[in-house]
Amino acid sequence: MKNRLRVLRAERQWSQQDLADRLDVSRQSVNAIETGKYDPSLPLAFRIADVFALTIEDIFLRDPEEQAAQ
Amino acid sequence: MIADLKRKPEARRYLLRMATAMVIYLGSLFAAEILIEDRGLSGAPAYVLAAVPGLSFAALFWIFARLIVEERDEFLRLLYVRQGMVATGLALTAAAVWGFLETYMPVPHVEAFWWPTIWCFGIGVGAIYNKVTMGVAGECM
Predict the structure, then answer these.
(1) What residues make up the domain containing B77?
(2) Which positions fall inside the HTH cro/C1-type domain (chain A) (predicted)?
């Protein structure tokens, strides 16, 4: 799943560690989510949305192929 | 993992438990060598003492399972589970392959306690697998 995490983080001039501290997760987790290697659970996705004061849909983008299949 | 020790109680507990299990393992191994091998301890106490080093491996598996359960970071939990799966696959495959080699070919016998030892080695291989497949994100322990 694609996401705008890197852009949103850059806009706030946060490092991966800054965001990880805000989310109470490891820097590796932030890196894995940003690079699309790991999709967060729903509770973590909500925490990410809360940190950026956005909705989940504003941060995580549906895969176009997946959307077309539906 | 070392950097996490200050702020992660589960990492501290993991290392403390691991150190305790290692002390029991080495102590019981040392005791078995002296009391059974050198001094001829026999009967039920000898059986119990001979089983303790092996039971220490049960502690290792329990400690690893607790690490997975207690880890609050869901991505790190995934990495640990992957490590465990690599280790289990490696150890059981090695045991099965060598078992058949011993059955059909003239190869030396390998004592059974080496298979869980290979599992521990497999945890290290699993960490490398995580690093190779996940890049920077795959660095855990």
Answers:
(1) 73-141
(2) 5-59
For B39-90, how does the pLDDT look when each residue is reduced to its tens digit (9 = 90+)?
A: 989 999 999 999 999 999 899 999 999 999 999 999 999 999 999 999 999 9
Answer yes or no: do B56 and B83 share one domain.
no
Q: What is the CATH number of the domain that holds A15?
A: 1.10.260.40
**Is B135 within 8 Å of A35 when comparing Cβ atoms?**
yes
> What pTM did the predictor assign?
0.86
Q: What are the respective helix, strand and coil percentages of chain B, to the nearest 5?
A: 85, 0, 15
**Residue-range definition of the domain harbouring residue A7:** 2-69
* Gap between the Cα atoms of B54 and B61, Å rounded: 12
Total domain count for chain B? 2
A26 with B74: Cβ contact below 8 A: no
